[in-house]
Amino acid sequence: MQMRKVTFIAGTLAALYGAAAVTAGDTPGVAPVARPTHDATPAKSQAQDAAKDATQAVNAPAKDAAKDAAQAVNAPEPGSPGDTLTREDKRMAYLVYKLLDKNGKIKGANLKRGAKLFYQNCRPCHGEDGMRVNVNPSGRPIYIGQRAREDMPTFWYQMNFGDEDRNMEAYYDEITLDEMKDIAGYAQTLP
Q: Coil, strand or helix: which one is 7?
């Protein structure tokens, strides 16, 4: 599971910053080591070769992470001609890399403020408890509390950019990023 998460993050960073994607099973930077095929190699030399191989395998991901970080630092300035990220890309990357903890919960949300903002902005359509509108009309009923807990990327995208199929308006230009974070955190507490 941890390898999948690392692979997903590396692949996402690669997509965002134009680096080569890393796939499961790849070990970038580690070249195959040629070994003698005869049995005359002393046991000590074999142990040294195995230790060297293990060191290379452990150090390669750290070198690749440093390379990825350097590419991210050298990323084009926001708004410059080289900046090809859409506002959707940026907002979704912010969610994944800054707001979600390992359990999919929003970090640092002010739930009291989130409740107030929810009642001002969301309650007219979604109701007091967020259960007025089924956000999954083609299957079992799902309401915004469950969607926020179980599928925050979809919830976050719809809250930011809307969903024409469900008559959800986009709030990207109307609600600040900090307010979005608080609403999303509060939504995770709803039934």
A: helix
